[in-house]
Amino acid sequence: MKTNYQQPISKKSLTVTAFALFSLFFGAGNLVLPPLLGFKSGDLWWLVTFGFCISGVLIPILGIMAHAKLQGTLFDFAKKVSPLFSVVYCYLIYAIAIALPSPRTASVTHEMAIQPFWDSSSLLTSLIYFMLVFVFAINRSKVLGLLGKLLTPGILIILLIMIATAVFTLDFNFMPSEMVQPFSSGILEGYQTFDAIGAVVVGAVIIISINIKEKSASFEEKRRLIGRAGLWAGIGLFLVYGGLILTGSLFGEFFDSEISRTALLRGISTKTLGQTANMLLSILVSLACFTTAVGIVTGTSDFIKGRFGNSIFAYRITAFLGCLLGVLVGQFDVGYIINVAVPSLMFIYPITIVLILLNVVPDKWGSPKVFKHVVWTTILFSIPDFLGSIGLGESISPYVNWIPLSQHQMGWVLPALIAFIISNLSNSAEILSTN
């Protein structure tokens, strides 16, 4: 008699993998998003938290699950639509990554660690910042990898102390919410974490690392390891993001309603931890932002290098252009960069979400036909949301108001679901007819 014995996952492997996944998504630039979201959400902070964590935690973790299933690269995520579509998608993802979240790290660094202490221009900060990014990207120093392992725990400890101080010392007196649509606002703000994009771009690195460290483990054992680690990482992200949103809501009456994201984070840190801890947090966040920028520039340069026959020249040119773009965009304030990012995210994020979900579902529900129909439907119904994000919402509203959830800038959701159901029903009908 056979028994399906499954080797237990070691606590060390589970802990290391869970922390690696947590570190992948716990970007320093993301820290400026939840506090202001909570600050504006007031008494509806809990509703905003669930929305934010759907797009900022759940979808990224599912992206890692999809990587565990595919055991491939970013190209494999969209190849069922068509190889050409997948190549275009890859170029778009890397272009957005190097043009927006990478420069944003320089802007966060300036507003968190430079501007409060020195009278220096943001252009100078951005210039020096990306000169150093270029040097590290060209030389591929291992120092940043080692530094990154220390930065995340350091930031996490300070944040947890800050959250605990706010929760246990402040009265739970919330200001009325400024948000008309708190749940959908939370989801859309979660786009700004870029974590779903991070999952499909960098997730393969985590999978490769697991394959190297767990050589003797079977495919299913690795899937279980990633599943459990993803669960723990997701719980950690939910607690941190939720804690920061709650903290921001508790400080609703302490700061001016027009305060910026970075100023609010600095203000909360100073009021809960004091000036010294605030300076330490600023330094740690800046270093973590720097490692993120190097990772984005290096990853993008590696992609272009691979597309051009492993050309070192292509790698260096991409790194240089990426850093030049970082200087130009990074000199603007964080709020401006976040606003500029909205149109591109309104277009690329729905596509990324459906690709993640389609790669997670069983293969019988994710045939190439289903991929094509769902993805193209998503693109079609994302266009109104994209046009609305560039100021054309009023002119197109008479034509798109009939689309469910369009008023929440998520008009693609129901059409994509319908396309998924109809495509699978069609597949089932074809199978029955052939039999």
TrEMBL record:
GO biological processes: isoleucine transport; L-leucine transport
Subcellular location: Cell membrane
GO cellular-component term (any): plasma membrane
Pfam annotation, one family: Branch_AA_trans
Superkingdom field: Bacteria
GO molecular function annotation: L-isoleucine transmembrane transporter activity; L-leucine transmembrane transporter activity; L-valine transmembrane transporter activity
Principal subcellular localization: membrane
Membrane topology listed for this record: Multi-pass membrane protein
Positions of transmembrane segments: 12-32, 44-68, 80-100, 120-138, 150-170, 190-210, 231-251, 279-300, 312-330, 336-361, 373-392, 412-432
UniProt family annotation: Belongs to the branched chain amino acid transporter family.
Protein name, as recorded: Branched-chain amino acid transport system II carrier protein
